[in-house]
Specification:
By secondary structure, the protein is of the alpha/beta class. It contains 13 helices and 17 strands. It has two domains: about 350 residues, TIM Barrel; about 80 residues, Immunoglobulin-like (Sandwich). Helix 1 runs parallel beside helix 3 and helix 5 packs parallel to helix 7. InterPro entries: Divisome_Glycosyl_Hydrolase, GH, GHL10.
Length: about 450
């Protein structure tokens, strides 16, 4: 959106766009990141060749203009080359950053179906209360899921518009038609819940191995509004944008959540420690994975004094380790990989990401492990093995001589993840006993093959 991360500006050539993306992924790989979330539909547009919606203006500068290539296969392939999952990120209800339909391409859904949209504070939004809108969003997501080799489908925190100038969101006609005696706020939440459930079912029907998740605003409800809410005093996603993440957890209509905990520790209105604890408790025993959305974009700014301290963001990961429900972190935004504010990424890599990490296994997905690697050999300082179909990567573990197969249960022994598409060998850096495992796209892991080079 607005060329915040990639491409850095509209109108770059395909070669320049590819080079920028590769640079970002290389920086992420240096930090041992293992997933990338790429916004492919900022506002009812497409950063891919879509039969349903126009090309995004953030590629060429002109909405609807063909950039001369389909970025999506390249974006996915480059992520997979580096052992990263690719999550296609959609904004479900944002239709345009203008309220003038005439400025949109002729094939834009909002122009073809003007009754679907609400003009609100200078922008166009699809009306979540209309079944045909929810069907359309589901159709767009399903199209991408079927046609591209994505690992996940991702929604951000924008559902109903955030409070702006306190303008009423003009959905009264839809409410009259579909509200069926509900209170307006309950009906709006129900509309979002319906979309989440509908998209989840469509994604898993199209490809059972594709994950679906949402990054909600960091506060569900404050304790002053609901005894089960967090001890915070900020905006409530439940009341302000009608996003009820606890309902999605209860219905198991999401596979993971990435709450945007974009506040520092000790911040009175929304203390990071308080919120991590609350979200960990919210997902406990649900089967929904919890990753924490981290405000990399705030580091080095003066918005809150704590963000001026280089140790603030790394300390969040220390807090997370107290909660087994926290399975990872997602950092916003990607452009900060280039600037590395206060060298905070160096600190995180040195203190917390000292070695590669396997992706979490989410409950409810296939758990059948692939076959162990075949013909594992050692020659002239390299381990090698035969490639196998259906294997996404290979795990390389190193332990002291004499270690048993249980060495692979200790993540501290994992020294490399080798993507299957890049190589079928690995240079051994030191003496010891090595183990090679095969990993499928969900990171189900085979039994290890043990080898002690002599």
């Amino acid at each position: 959106m607005h060329n915040l991360d990639w491409p850095s500006r509209p109108g770059l050539s395909p070669t320049q766009q590819r080079a920028e993306y590769v640079k970002l992924l290389d920086l992420a790989a240096e930090r041992r990141f293992n997933a990338v979330f790429v916004q492919v539909r900022p506002a009812s547009d497409a950063v891919y060749r879509s039969p349903l919606e126009p090309w995004s203006k953030y590629l060429t500068g002109t909405a609807g203009k063909d950039p001369g290539w389909d970025p999506m296969p390249f974006l996915i392939e480059e992520a997979h080359k580096r052992g990263m999952e690719f999550h296609a990120w959609f904004n479900p209800f944002r239709a345009a950053d203008t309220a003038d339909l005439r400025k949109l391409p002729a094939n834009h859904p909002a122009r073809l179906h003007p009754s679907w949209v609400v003009k609100h504070e200078g922008q166009l939004y699809y009306n979540p209360g209309l079944p045909q809108v929810r069907d359309w969003v589901t159709k767009v997501v399903t199209d991408v899921t079927r046609r591209y080799d994505v690992d996940g489908i991702h929604f951000d925190d924008y559902f109903y518009p955030y409070p702006g100038q306190t303008t009423y969101f003009a959905d009264s006609a839809a409410f009259t038609k579909y509200g069926k005696g509900m209170k307006l706020a309950d009906w709006r939440r129900a509309n979002v819940n319906k979309l989440i459930a509908q998209v989840s079912e469509a994604v898993h029907t199209a490809k059972p191995y594709v994950k679906f998740g949402v990054s909600p605003f960091g506060i569900w409800r404050n304790k002053s509004e609901d005894p089960s809410g967090s001890n915070t005093k900020g905006m409530s996603a439940y009341s302000a944008i009608y996003a009820d993440a606890k309902a999605w957890i209860k219905a198991r209509s999401v596979d993971y959540l990435i709450p945007q905990l974009y506040w520092p520790r000790g911040y009175a209105a929304a203390d990071y420690d308080t919120l991590v604890s609350w979200w960990a408790n919210a997902v406990k025993g649900s089967g929904v994975d919890l990753y924490i959305g981290q405000a990399l974009y705030q580091v080095g700014t003066k918005s809150i004094p704590a963000w001026g301290k280089a140790g603030e963001l790394p300390s969040h990961l220390a807090v997370n380790r107290k909660y087994p429900e926290v399975r990872g972190d997602v950092f916003f935004n990607a452009a900060k990989l280039r600037s590395n504010p206060l060298t905070v990424l160096d600190r995180i890599a040195d203190q917390y990401y000292t070695q590669p990490a396997l992706l979490p296994l989410i409950k409810g997905f296939n758990t059948k492990a692939p076959q162990a690697p075949r013909d594992v050999q050692y020659s002239e300082g390299r381990l090698s093995w035969k490639p196998e179909p259906g294997v996404r990567a290979y795990g390389i573990y190193r332990a002291e001589d004499g270690a048993g197969d249980c060495a692979t249960t200790d993540g501290r022994n994992l020294i490399a993840i080798v993507p299957a598409g890049s190589a079928h060998s690995y240079a051994t850096p030191a003496k010891g006993t090595y183990f090679v495992t095969a990993l499928d796209r969900l990171n189900n892991e085979s039994l290890p093959v043990r080898l002690t080079p002599r």
